[in-house]
Design goal:
Blueprint (H helix, E strand, L loop, with lengths): L3 H25 L3 E6 L7 H16 L3 E6 L2 H10 L6 E2 L2 E2 L3 H24 L5 E5 L6 E10 L2 E14 L2 H8 L3 E5 L1 E3 L5 E3 L2 H12 L3 E6 L17 E3 H7 L8 H11 L5 E6 L5 H7 L6 E4 L5
Parallel strand pairs: 1-2, 1-11, 2-8, 5-8, 11-13, 12-14
Antiparallel strand pairs: 3-4, 6-7, 9-10, 13-14
Helix pairs in contact: 3-4, 6-8
């Protein structure tokens, strides 16, 4: 049974947490924050609910969240059901025409609707979009570089233009846009776009205050696998020098952060989406979590 003294101590702890959040609430009130959502954070039920709670909290706290989602685990499962092998080169999914149909079906028809439904349990906030809608993302075919050799990986796109007007209109109307990482080509072809890359491109176009990438690791490790020491803060020049040594899975995430901060976004963050309320811990606490990427060399 909780005593009055224990209840008061708990209340004081909550008050300290709120006071710690005050300068961050002031700083980011009205700011657009683009969140890339994927990995285990979108497959484990308690983490899905925690993520939705965080996003709605941001909305009520006066921030303007935008979600860009992937769906790797769901795509892998669906391709396996169809008997299609999941293959990756340089961290990017090899996407045949048959695989592209499955990717589009899963991202637009299943995952996007699931995320929208999860958020809308809290009220009429979220609206789902594909990167095809209103020409949001236009892409050209992207080649993967493996050991210095360019490899054709199918219908994988590199974004060359962002028309963010539809997304901005939703934001201005108080909605939370939820965007799946599919793009169209200028010739009408359809491309699978890495969600980290899509989130960075959208963050730049919207003039976002932050890009946040949720992943399945604690952040950028200083010397993986020899050490699990996480780099808490790194400047763009140092990150650019480090990129060639990173594992293939981390390259698209860190490239996205680098693109964002060198194109006008003040800060980009890689967080462990397996940590409940990771978004709130990053935005509203003094220490934050994960790895923060800044435009300049960190002093």
């Amino acid at each position: 049974m909780t005593t009055a003294r224990e209840s008061m101590a708990t209340a004081h702890e909550k008050a300290r947490t709120l006071i710690e959040a005050l300068p961050w609430l002031s700083r980011f009130h009205g700011a657009t924050v683009v969140v890339k959502y994927g990995g285990n954070a979108m497959t484990e039920q308690h983490l899905r609910e925690s993520f939705a709670d965080d996003v709605i909290f941001l909305r009520y706290a006066g921030l303007r969240p935008v979600i860009v989602h992937g769906g790797g685990p769901q795509i892998n499962a669906h391709l396996a059901e169809l008997g299609i092998e999941s293959r990756f080169e340089a961290g990017l999914r090899v996407t045949t025409p048959e695989a592209m149909r499955a990717v589009r079906r899963v991202l637009v028809g299943e995952v996007n609707r699931d995320v929208v439904g999860l958020l809308n349990r809290h009220g009429p906030f979220a609206v789902g979009l594909s990167g095809e809608d209103a020409h949001l993302f236009t892409a050209t075919r992207k080649l993967a570089m493996v050991d210095g050799v360019a490899i054709d990986i199918g219908q994988v796109g590199e974004i060359v233009r962002v028309e963010a007007g539809a997304v901005q209109a939703l934001i201005d109307n108080g909605r939370i846009p939820v965007v799946s990482s599919i793009a169209r080509g200028a010739d009408g072809s359809i491309y699978n776009v890495n969600a980290d890359t899509a989130a960075a491109a959208l963050a730049v176009s919207l003039g976002a205050a932050k890009l946040i990438v949720l992943t399945d690791v604690e952040g950028l490790y200083r010397d993986w696998p020899a050490s699990d020491d996480v780099i808490r803060r790194i400047g763009a020049p140092d990150l650019a020098a480090l990129l060639p040594s990173l594992s293939s899975g981390m390259v698209p995430k860190m490239e996205a952060c680098l693109t964002a901060v060198t194109s006008g976004v003040p800060g980009a963050h890689v967080l462990d989406g397996r940590v409940p309320h990771a978004l709130l811990l990053e935005i509203f606490t003094d220490e934050g979590i994960g790895t923060m990427v800044t435009p300049k060399v960190d002093e």
